[in-house]
Specification:
- The chain is α/β, with parallel strands linked by helices.
- The protein has one domain (9-200): Maf protein.
- The chain has helices at residues 18-28, 53-68, 102-115, 179-185, 187-200; strands spanning 9-13, 33-37, 72-81, 122-132, 138-149, 165-167.
- Helix 4 packs across helix 5.
- It is globular and about 50 Å long.
């Protein structure tokens, strides 16, 4: 089935997370897309009621597209830790509490891994990207990157769980990477590559 193409012009980024909006904006820049965040438009954040990254990405994208009357792109992403049976997973942001305090969330990961009956440090990031239109149509893509949990946190770049995640084959955390380097190899980049090939490249 053919994918729907996205025309140049305004695109609502269905996120109130400035770091995420910046990353997505940088990836979209070359395609004539003009990103505007849901926060700037005063759009509410819908409750994430789905059980998967893809389900929540589609829910958020459709809500923003219908509310704004413009195409919208939503990202649902998170960290899954093998020793924690895939947690925090789709609840990654919620582990930081109401304030979305990722220092707290990272400590929680470390404490629960220490208490777990496992020697595994393996983890992966997942990103689901959903591009939706006001008529409810959505195109959704998923990317992953695999690595290990490191402690204590390292680096001040990036956001979220980046300071405790080291990709397989690297010796620095995501938060120690140059942002352009991270953009090129991250889970979000993997999902974006699929989206670009399907919906943006002519």
């Amino acid at each position: 089935m053919a994918h729907r193409r996205l025309d140049p012009g305004p695109l609502v980024i269905a996120s109130h997370n400035p770091g995420k909006v910046r990353e997505i904006g940088a990836l979209l820049g070359p395609f004539g897309v003009e990103p505007v965040s849901a926060g700037e438009l005063g759009l509410p954040e819908p409750e994430e009621t789905e059980a998967t990254f893809i389900g929540n990405a589609e829910l958020k994208a459709r809500a923003a597209a219908i509310a704004s009357g413009k195409p919208a792109l939503a990202d649902d992403s998170g960290l899954s830790v093998d020793a924690l049976d895939g947690a925090p997973g789709i609840y990654s942001a919620r582990w930081g509490g109401e304030a979305k305090d990722f220092d707290l969330a990272m400590r929680k990961v470390h404490e629960r891994m220490t208490a777990a009956d496992s020697d595994s440090l393996a983890a992966h990031f997942t990103c689901a990207l959903s591009l939706a239109w006001p008529d409810g149509h959505a195109e959704t893509f998923e990317g992953k990157v695999f690595g290990t949990i490191v402690w204590p946190p390292r680096g001040s770049r990036g956001f979220g769980y980046d300071p405790i995640f080291q990709r397989d084959g690297d010796d620095i955390s995501f938060a120690e990477m140059d942002p352009d380097e991270k953009h090129a190899i991250s889970h979000r980049a993997a999902a974006f590559d699929q989206l670009v090939r399907a919906c943006l490249k002519r």
